[in-house]
């Protein structure tokens, strides 16, 4: 008899959420200071916490909202509200492109689940702050205020913040936010992708949208395929199709999925190495979580590959839920997943838990649960 594949294994969402509750109750117990957001584990084994202006500050609150969404337990709603409001001041932050991560992950989920008008107003201001980073002379949202010798760098991660702008456009009626998101996505589509549909990490622009350089910051090399970056691309263009119904975005998302799923260096358990061009090195659970969540949504739009996307996402989640990647209760500084990589070239957060790995893992579990129950994903 042939061995069962990971796709045939059972994924018990209720069990995984119950486990996550136990871990995150531990996280709440050790994190009383609302100015210090859970991020990772330092090289000395201590908790690595970051301030609200750090790009990951919204993920913890967002994860708490996912626990509330599944359990309907008011304990999680109260905790989620507290950690969501702790990021409020970032609504006026115009120095970062990451306000989608920082604000939409916590406030967006909170508003979707509770319709609290406070969350809505904070997000609308935050979206306007993010929009200030779009310069029509360049045609893209500026990621960083300078990088190396370049003044206008744009990273593939930026695609993840457009969902926030689309929400704000629909909610406020400000079509400018919709239009600039489309322009950014179109220029990214044009300039960030290679012939095989892998993505560069950083594209550096000059006036009139001239591309000056195509580089990496967190990948192995300028020419390599940094795994989480491929996840950002797949997820981001799936959202673009959802929000615009323009099939060129669906086509791109499916081509990115084809690159990822057919790559000869993708391990059998479907958890990618931190860079697709670095086989045998560290795995990146965060990349797998992002890709799994993106594939689950993409499975709802694809005509030909729906089952492939769903089954691969299930395999990824089954692997992540295994003892290889999931920590024992009470360990791992109360993070859920082990074995993620932040930036290996900088020897930063290598083979450690990362708060956004947990966030996208929980998101993917909830998406998987809805799909298996034949319920529509709600955005």
TrEMBL record:
One Pfam family recorded for the sequence: Glyco_hydro_88
Chain residues that bind substrate: 98, 157, 216, 228, 232, 343
Gene3D superfamilies: 1.50.10.10
Residue ranges of the TM segments: none
One GO MF term attached to the UniProt entry: chondroitin hydrolase activity
UniProt record, GO biological process: polysaccharide catabolic process
Keyword Cell division among record annotations: no
Key words of the record: Hydrolase
Residues making up the signal peptide according to the UniProt record: none
Active site (record annotation): 98 (nucleophile), 157 (proton donor)
Family to which this protein belongs: Belongs to the glycosyl hydrolase 88 family.
Alphabetical list of PANTHER family matching this protein: HYDROLASE, PUTATIVE (AFU_ORTHOLOGUE AFUA_7G05090)-RELATED (PTHR36845:SF1)
Protein name: Glucuronyl hydrolase
Species whose genome carries this gene: Pedobacter frigiditerrae
